[in-house]
Amino acid sequence: MENLKAIEKIREFIKNQSQFVKELYIYEKTSNFPDFFKKANIRVDIENFNQIILKEETALELGGVNKKSFSLVFPINEIDLVIDGQITLIGKEMDQISDKSIDFGLFILIGSNKITEKDFDALRHFNFISNSIDGFMIRTIPRRFWCRISKNIINNFSFEFLGNAIMHLYKQKFKDSVNSIEIIFINSYPDIIDEFMDVSQDIRNYLDLKWKDKIEKWKKRIDCDYEWECDACPYYDTCEEIKEVLEERNKIGD
């Protein structure tokens, strides 16, 4: 897959939406993250809020079982293809939303000039964000993704805030790997989410093939002959423990 063509499709998609959707916002990341978070009165601190937000504590759910949703994180080596610090929202801002649950999609484009295989996998697993924003929770299951926003923070929360928080946390956690980062949010319009899924099909195919190749290599390594993929496997936790043991043994052997 040629990354330039894949990203150009995304750019064209955004340009087209600007002609037909009135709710389209372009934000730039703040120049001072601590002051920005303090002003919103929402705490953001890496891996410091291991929380579960119950249904009755939830003001708004983004995505979920009964809504269309996607999350897509795409790390690339071509830093110049990423508009660093840009946050694009296609859909409604928080103060325009009256529903309790909405369709939601999240695309994170990360530029790095030194992505190792280990870095690539780590950058794509972004659930650490769920433990780093007070009053915000992310949950994922195969093919489903959703976020919950607590009643305690909803009045000060926005997609501009969420975009800045995600950028800040990525830069904190992967400061040696992340050179640039760009975020696209889509909400409230299921047809636009479907269109984005079509536009990003090449990216998703590439990531799926990369993941399946990794699974096959790992299965051969541990002599696994199960047909299901790892994220649906009932022995996933045990397998991960074995993997960690093997990796530690390799380190000792080195």
Structure description:
- This protein has 254 residues and is an alpha/beta fold.
- It has two domains: 3-200, Bifunctional carbon monoxide dehydrogenase/acetyl-coa synthase(codh/acs), Chain M, domain 3, CATH 3.30.1650.10; 207-253, no CATH class.
- Helices cover 39% and strands 22% of the residues.
- The protein has helices at residues 3-20, 33-40, 117-124, 159-173, 190-199, 201-222, 236-253, and strands spanning 24-28, 58-63, 69-76, 86-90, 101-102, 104-111, 136-141, 144-150, 180-187.
- Strands 1-4-9-6-3 form a five-stranded mixed β-sheet, with helices on both faces. Strands 5-2-8-7 form a four-stranded mixed β-sheet, with no helix packed on it.
- β7 (136-141) and β8 form a beta hairpin.
- It is globular, with a radius of gyration of 19 Å.
- The two termini are 35 Å apart.
- The mean pLDDT is 87.
Q: What can be said about this structure in brief?
A:
The protein is an alpha/beta fold. The protein contains seven helices and nine strands. It starts with a helix and ends with a helix.
Assembly context of the chains: single chain
Low-confidence stretches: none
Which architecture of the largest domain does the CATH hierarchy give at level 2? 2-Layer Sandwich
First CA to last CA: what distance?
A: 35 Å
Overall, the morphology is globular
Q: H/E element string?
A: HEHEEEEEHEEHEHHH
The CATH topology of the largest domain is Bifunctional carbon monoxide dehydrogenase/acetyl-coa synthase(codh/acs), Chain M, domain 3
